[in-house]
Amino acid sequence: MITDSIQSLKDNIKQRVANPFLGTFILVWVAVNWEVVYAFFFFDDNFKLVNKVAYFKKYWTTHSFVTNLTKVTFLTILVLVITYFFLSISRLILNYFENVVIPYIQKISKGKIYTEEQYKQLLQRILVLENKVDSERKAKNEALEEIDKLQKDRKFLENIAFDGGEIRDEKPTNDKIVLGKMDAEIEKDAMSLSENFDSKTCKEYIFGLDRKESFEKENIFIQFLLQHDYIIFNGRTSPHSSYYIYDYTRDGQRLRKILLNMLS
Question: Is 112 helix (H, G, I), strand (E, B) or coil?
Answer without folding.
Answer: coil
